[in-house]
Structure prediction request, 212 residues.
Amino acid sequence: MSIRLGDIAPDFEQDSSEGRIRFHEWLGDSWGVLFSHPADFTPVCTTELGFTAKLKDQFAQRNVKAIALSVDPVDSHIKWIDDINETQSTAVNFPILADADRKVSELYDLIHPNANDTLTVRSLFVIDPNKKVRLTITYPASTGRNFHEILRVIDSLQLTDEHKVATPANWQDGDEVVIVPSLKDEEEIKRRFPQGYRAVKPYLRLTPQPNR
Prediction:
């Protein structure tokens, strides 16, 4: 099953390091970051989970819940969490799904046979409060994820959901944004963007970032 942007994230019920989780119910009205790992006790994953734990306040500011997944069982996760806490100087503060039966992995197409026919790839999904998939990224197992980029995309999604703007290349929170081409009415533009805008081209209009 291939998951595309705009699809409803598949719901599931699965065990985790924090007990049984019904995914949609667990998400509630929050944004979600679901990310998979090839296996427990692997070096890159250990750094990723530790870094995610350190982002707790950053995620909370954005109303985001993080949840990880590995095909190993709960007892393995618990032991691994001890290692993560020790080596990364943090405390894991989010659940790790125990997907030993591959149920969630199959729902989210996380096993790519040409990469490895038993372990999950390093995939990540950003899911909005309506349970729609808004971002998918898949990395090879050897490459750790850029979580600063994931936060940047969440900032962009939340901003552009609220305002009729898009974010340009390499945009960071606070930079100028692009007024969407479909917005033509000058009175509405003045109302939405009281600081004005500069038209580089008729289709490329830049304005200071609106408040979120």
The CA atoms of residues 43 and 142 lie 10 Å apart.
